[in-house]
Write a structure and sequence with these properties.
This protein has 2 helices and no strands. It is mainly alpha-helical. The model has no long low-confidence stretch (mean pLDDT 75).
């Protein structure tokens, strides 16, 4: 029982030529800066974040919050 061992490297698959895919560019949308009404800086330094968020927290807790939010941001 003499078996011949064939040792050769496996054949490589044929090379495929791929066409380049054109790159589509996304349009950049320019968003205007929001006009948020902030309280002025205090005489001792910056205003604490809780003072800035206080009007929004009151609006969020109010039952008619949708109308109040529209009024708050209508100038933005």
């Amino acid at each position: 029982m003499n078996q011949a061992i064939i040792s050769r490297p496996p054949s490589a698959p044929p090379l495929q030529i791929r066409m380049p895919i054109p790159v589509t560019r996304k349009k950049r949308t320019v968003e205007p800066e929001p006009a948020v009404k902030l309280p002025p800086r205090g005489t001792t330094g910056p205003v604490h974040i809780s003072k800035l968020l206080e009007p929004l927290q009151q609006i969020i807790r109010h039952p008619d919050r949708n109308r109040l939010l529209v009024e708050f941001f209508k100038d933005a």
